């Protein structure tokens, strides 16, 4: 068993700053370990996690008891619960990350300039990533492994409901790290439920956190975006739209809208608002609405939509701004692609936006003018996922405009440096 | 002449927020204008600037008078002063930016996934860039043009000493924009000397500034890094090192060190500290020191350096942390590349670091382990410049770890979106 993690002190600020310093030191060792060293470390973390199943389940039982006492909802309790199979599936997810290509050291570009200098842009780790998350205990391992795959150290802050589970998992990861000869402090978990710890992380721990990744509900992410003094990679809301154009293929429109809304309603890439071209609303909306209703979806429409499908509820201004994450969809009739772009520009959250049309020029216009991380033509918004994009794993979907957008995989957790090779050049 | 810019109101906050809203609207128009539209706009800005020479010089005369009354140093007055030739050279710099490739819309990568989706990562503008700068009036035009070349709107905050010049230049740019049929509000200049305006910009104007670029001295940049709630692309300090390895070619070492320190001492890429391997310090340091002294450079050394070249001043701990920006260099004898890396890791500012060696393995180790925007082997640190890197123009050198590092040109002022093209895919 590795050394235990730091113990909380009365002086939270000092504890947190010391974590930052240790993380920075560990991140340098990770960068030096090379691809193979990092791969071996992730594999060792997986083995140690597998081996610690008993300890992890015991810790999880404590969290479940606490959750019960706190009256957590069944959904929350389910998210919190670990089983032997779930622990092994977390370990398997680590093994899968170990197989992913390691982006560090890759040349993004290389060219020669007239002075004869050979200039290469080479991927490097970001450094230290702070991850703040809520109930799901698997995030502890998943996020740490993805940070590792790109040479970054991680400072993790788990939700208070899952803290015991997270400590047990982090201890296992650190045991694995130590057995692979890497510094344990490349993975550190905040050991207190004190919410002030989040505040310290958001100020960057004296420059020792390079980026914050929030994973959780709206309240958490809003606090992060509000207080963070370091860059944040993450998304606040996924209020995704599907626009059915006048030139859409009817059956494709029905199939995609139902899938985009109903495949899983609780994920950020699910469609929340259906926009339909007035040119086809009368002919196509009834069939789409019937298919949605058959799938168990409640509909809320604007006046034009309700004049075509009268048994919809009324959609108010608030509905255009609501990420339901539930089997509810708002429906608005718009004036062609221009109306769709205007609505999305006003209400979209830069996550994922979709157009269904057979008209290539209309699709191009939508693709060019919509400002979002992911713009989809003729496919379901539920494809907004790093795995579906071929990235292997993702730490989340980014909706900001800096550094990364869309699914954030190992490659997006890197930055670059310029390597300049000369032969004695002095600048005139 | 275009409409005049907004006039300051008593309520600075409202004025600033309104600027942000207008900038966001204008940025959408810029993105839609396409490459050719943006090129024509930059050309029109150049013509309008050329034509406004008289107005600009008159405004500059006011600034010069103000500067004289304020007792600005000769160096500051020179930086502030415009002449007919300088105005035309600013216009020519705009014409050069108009010739640069426009990165927006370029495909960075494109691949197909097993579901049949065709996924492309495509460059898009960042959106709205806030630029905060000091005395040099040319920044108003240079920075605005580079933002434009990548489809971004700009909110500019000039130094109070150059405000009249900046207003005249910004008015000319806006006239050019209007004549090219683009919204003038794509370039807005803060019209007040009130320093609170900077504070408003640093909070992001309700999400309407996507990134802040500070260009100026340490005080400005420190304030920006301290207060900014939006990402910052820029550098705090350029405390660059040149390390002369035991396996360095002697004459190359002498030439590069003198150039790296003395070509221009006031730029961020100039070398401030010379690190020399103890293996060659006795044989090589006297010649390097003599060449530096001949070039007019004062030397400050540690004990080991002074035991070899006794007529150096003493370098203290503070010297290792000082960006002189003057003909002064600190000198330290280190224990090989490991000692050099340790010193740079402790004192470097992630700007530009150089090794001089004929040993490829030593160079590789330095390149891999040094964490800086630019790592140079066998060439002068004074090459740290977007022009020398073939970028055509730069808005500055970034030393952060997020989004961009090293010289920041038009390409680094973009982000990307994913364009997903399907044929009706619904996710299983």
Task: Break the fold down into its secondary structure elements and pairings.
The structure is a homodimer.
Chain A: H1 12-51, H2 53-70, H3 74-80, H4 84-99, E1 107-112, E2 118-125, E3 128-133, H5 138-149, E4 153-157, H6 163-179, E5 187-189, H7 196-202, E6 211-215, H8 218-227, E7 240-244, H9 250-262, E8 271-277, H10 278-294, E9 298-301, H11 303-308, E10 313-314, H12 317-320, E11 328-334, H13 336-347, E12 352-356, H14 360-369, E13 374-379, E14 397-398, E15 406-407, E16 414-425
Parallel strand pairs in A: 3-4, 3-6, 4-5, 7-8, 7-12, 8-11, 9-10, 9-11, 12-13
Antiparallel strand pairs in A: 1-2, 2-16, 14-15
Helix pairs in contact in A: 1-4, 1-6, 1-7, 2-6, 4-5, 9-10
Please give a handful of descriptors for the protein shown.
alpha/beta, disordered N terminus, 16 strands, 2 domains
> What structural class results from the helix and strand content of chain A?
alpha/beta
Number of individual domains of chain A: 2
> In order across it, which strands form the biggest sheet of chain A?
10-9-11-8-7-12-13
- Tell me the quaternary state: homodimer
Portion of residues within helices of chain A: 40-55%
The CATH class assignment of the largest domain in chain A is Alpha Beta
Question: What is the CATH T-level topology of the largest domain in chain A?
Answer: Aldehyde Dehydrogenase, Chain A, domain 1
Strand percentage of chain A lies at 15-25%
The outline of chain A comes out as globular
In sequence order, what are the helices and strands of chain A, one letter per element? HHHHEEEHEHEHEHEHEHEHEHEHEHEEEE
Given as residue ranges, the uncertain stretches of chain A (5+ residues, pLDDT < 50) are 1-9
């Amino acid at each position: 068993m590795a050394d235990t993690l730091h113990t909380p002190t009365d002086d939270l600020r000092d504890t947190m700053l010391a974590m930052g310093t240790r993380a920075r030191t560990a991140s340098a060792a990770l960068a030096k370990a090379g691809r193979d060293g990092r791969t071996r470390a992730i594999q060792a973390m997986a083995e140690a996690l597998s081996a610690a199943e008993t300890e992890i389940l015991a810790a999880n039982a404590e969290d479940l008891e606490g959750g019960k006492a706190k009256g957590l909802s069944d959904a929350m309790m389910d998210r919190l619960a670990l089983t032997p199979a779930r622990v092994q599936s977390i370990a398997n997810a680590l093994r899968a990350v170990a197989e992913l290509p390691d982006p560090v050291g890759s040349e993004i570009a290389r060219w020669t300039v007239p002075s004869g200098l050979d200039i290469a842009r080479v991927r490097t780790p970001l450094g230290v990533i702070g991850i703040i998350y809520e109930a799901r205990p698997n995030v502890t391992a998943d996020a740490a492994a993805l940070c590792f795959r790109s040479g970054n150290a991680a400072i993790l802050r788990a939700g208070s409901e899952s803290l015991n589970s997270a400590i047990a998992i982090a201890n296992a990861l650190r045991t694995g790290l130590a057995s692979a000869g890497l510094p344990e402090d490349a993975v550190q978990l905040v050991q207190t439920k004190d919410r002030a710890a989040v505040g310290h992380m958001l100020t960057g721990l004296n420059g020792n956190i390079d980026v914050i990744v929030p994973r959780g509900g709206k309240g958490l992410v809003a606090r992060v975006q509000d207080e963070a003094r370091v860059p944040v990679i993450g998304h606040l809301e996924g209020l995704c739209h599907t626009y059915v154009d006048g030139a859409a293929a009817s059956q494709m429109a029905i199939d995609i809208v139902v899938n985009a809304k109903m495949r899983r309603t609780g994920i950020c890439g699910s469609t929340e608002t259906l926009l339909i071209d007035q040119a086809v609303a009368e002919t196509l909306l009834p069939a789409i609405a019937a298919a949605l209703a058959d799938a168990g979806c409640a509909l809320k429409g604007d006046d034009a939509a309700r004049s075509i499908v009268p048994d919809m509820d009324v959609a108010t201004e608030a509905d255009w701004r609501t990420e339901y994450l539930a089997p509810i969809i708002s429906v608005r009739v718009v004036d062609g692609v221009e109306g769709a772009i205007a609505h999305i520009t006003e209400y979209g959250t830069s996550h994922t936006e979709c157009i269904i049309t057979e008209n290539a020029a209309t699709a191009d216009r939508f693709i060019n003018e919509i400002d979002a991380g992911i713009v989809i033509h003729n496919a379901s918004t539920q494809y907004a996922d790093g795995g579906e994009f071929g990235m292997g794993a993702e730490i989340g979907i980014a909706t900001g405009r800096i550094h990364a957008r869309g699914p954030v995989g190992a490659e997006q957790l890197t930055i670059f440096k310029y390597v300049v090779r000369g032969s004695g050049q002095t600048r005139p």
